[in-house]
Write a structure and sequence with these properties.
Blueprint: H1 15-19, E1 40-46, H2 61-71, E2 76-83, H3 84-96, E3 107-113, E4 126-132, E5 140-143, E6 154-160, E7 163-172, H4 185-202, E8 206-212, E9 242-244, E10 278-283, E11 292-296, E12 313-318
Parallel strand pairs: 1-2, 7-8
Antiparallel strand pairs: 1-12, 2-4, 3-4, 5-6, 6-7, 8-10, 9-10, 11-12
Helix pairs in contact: 2-3
């Protein structure tokens, strides 16, 4: 975990929803089955659920989160730094909004820290989560190399039940990037994520990965993620197989994308655009047509804090082709 992040999402919801006291009561609707050429709309946010909110579900965070998901018509949602109670509150609000096609099978959570004093009100685990508008298949947690702390970093993945060859994953990597005999802990975790994704591709699976990698696009350790085809004007060393959905936005530092972290840094990125730590990755060979992404302004509607998080939410849209 860290001590800084950016975000201010433009919302179009009522005051009652933003206050986060009751589930959003939108008219229920049924999600249509996924067509072969359906674009995936992703939404990811590191919510600082313990650091800034201490596990609260009533300080406006949940309402701000859900309202943004609904307003953006997102179909796949990833959360980092979330307390179990906050995860369950998001479930309740999304059910109340009629968002999932299957009210009982649309989300997954894995703990990265177990309950302890000072964490999430001391009685619940803390970790990462994903939500899908469409039913999910069995989830699997892939534990990543240890960074020497108590936190068990992981990659959480679940296939779409009606399209099991498509897998949605979320992860939150360690900020520990100091050198070591085998590279830094962050470097080793990036390598482990890359190896798992390569295994998915070898098995013929298509995937979408969201998360806070705690590394910037121009850092050498991210070369293993980016495909050589990415036009990274400050670093053309990509040796991976992925495109990041914000890497084609020439209006916000081509190949790098918009900032997602609110805390200023001595070196704020190659274009002076700020720190980017959050990503939406897909395999380059599976992309069909254009893709887009944007980071959203951090909400200011949460009680007791100036900003609802120290990260911006990141949204993206992409259409993927099937097959090997």
């Amino acid at each position: 975990m860290r001590t800084g992040r950016i975000l201010v999402l433009p919302f179009l919801l009522t005051t009652a929803v933003l206050l986060g006291t009751t589930p959003y009561a939108a008219p229920p609707y049924a999600s249509a089955p996924l067509a072969a050429d359906t674009p995936y709309r992703l939404w990811h946010w590191n919510i600082a659920g313990n650091t800034l909110h201490r596990g609260s579900v009533s300080d406006g965070l949940i309402g701000a989160l859900v309202s943004s998901v609904l307003n953006r018509d997102s179909g796949l949602v990833s959360l980092n730094e979330v307390c179990r109670g906050q995860y369950e509150a998001v479930q309740e609000w999304l059910r109340g909004a009629g968002w999932p096609a299957d009210r009982g099978n649309f989300s997954r959570f894995t703990a990265t820290l177990t309950p302890r004093k000072g964490l999430c009100q001391g009685s619940e685990p803390y970790g990462i989560a994903l939500f899908s508008k469409w039913p999910l298949g069995p989830a699997k947690t892939y534990v990543l190399p240890s960074d020497g702390t108590a936190e068990r970093r992981a990659l959480l993945c679940a296939p779409l039940a009606d399209r099991p060859e498509v897998t949605f994953c979320t992860t939150h990597l360690t900020p520990r990037a100091f050198p070591g005999r085998d590279g830094s802990p962050n470097d080793r975790q990036i390598a482990a994520v890359r190896a798992r994704l390569d295994a998915f591709a070898t098995a013929g699976r298509t995937y979408l990965v969201a998360g806070d990698f705690n590394a910037q696009p121009h850092h050498t350790r991210m070369d293993r993620m980016y495909a050589p085809s990415v036009d990274r004007r400050t670093d053309r060393g990509g040796r991976g197989a992925h495109r990041e959905l914000d890497d084609a936005d020439r209006g916000h530092c081509a190949g790098h994308g918009e900032r997602t972290f609110s805390v200023p840094a001595p070196r704020p990125g190659p274009c002076g655009s700020g720190v980017k730590l959050d990503y939406l990755f897909v395999r380059a060979a599976r992309i069909s047509g254009a893709y887009t992404a944007d980071s959203l302004a951090i909400p200011t509607s949460c009680h007791g804090v100036r900003l609802c998080s120290d990260h911006r939410a990141l949204i993206g849209t992409v259409t993927l082709r099937r097959g090997r």
